[in-house]
Amino acid sequence: xxxxxHLILFVLISVNCFGQTLFFDNLNxxxxxxxxxxxxxQLSNSTEIxxxxxxxxKDSLKKNVSIWTFKDSVLTxxxxxxxLKRDSLIGKYNFKSANSILEVKLNDISQLNFKVxxxxxxxxxxxxxxxxxxxNFTANVDIGNTTKDGLYxxxxxxxxxxDKIEKLNGKTVNISGDVTIVKPxxxxxxxxxxxxxxxxxxHILNPKxxxxx
Length: 213
Description:
This protein has helices at 2-25, 40-44, 162-168; strands spanning 31-34, 48-53, 65-71, 74-81, 86-98, 101-105, 111-118, 124-129, 134-140, 146-147, 150-153, 156-158, 172-178, 180-182, 201-204, 208-211. The chain has an eight-stranded antiparallel beta barrel. It has a five-stranded mixed beta sheet with strand order 10-11-12-15-14, with no helix packed on it. A three-stranded antiparallel beta sheet has the order 9-13-16, with no helix packed on it. It has three helices and 16 strands. The radius of gyration is 21 Å and the shape is elongated. The N and C termini lie far apart (62 Å). The protein has 213 residues and is an alpha+beta fold. The longest helix is centred in the first third of the chain and has 24 residues, at 2-25. The chain has two domains: 2-129, no CATH class; 134-211.
């Protein structure tokens, strides 16, 4: 029984690895569909996205979808309306793959990392959002970046009391610690903010702080 389990596990791992290889090898020449993404904000807040290869003309699609086109290291995401037979652009993003991770750069300071899971030999894929578990960086403290939860620093919300932020203001510090992911709350069905933060935020709740200069 144990041998059968190991055999099945080996086959599943082999199929997934083979599918990942197909996905990344053909990425710059492929188009995929997903459920409709309403905005870049919704994209940045997604933690799991199911993709299906686009094998037919988009005019033959029966329901509204988002179309992901990978070409020359640029990912173009559009929404396709089957009634209007028209595309609307969500955005164009530079992308690259590294160590089986798909990296999508939203802008100069924001990047989405996805692990790729293959359901079959290349026709279906699931993008799983990947987050770092630990942070270690050096940055300048600016009291103007204070938030209700601490200090916004280098794309992290660092839990530092205000009186300590005042003492550190203008100094260069090294910050390290475990990263806690907080998902946005109170978004409507169109992905728009009703109240609170509108994006996934990365918190360092118990930071180790060392003054560099």
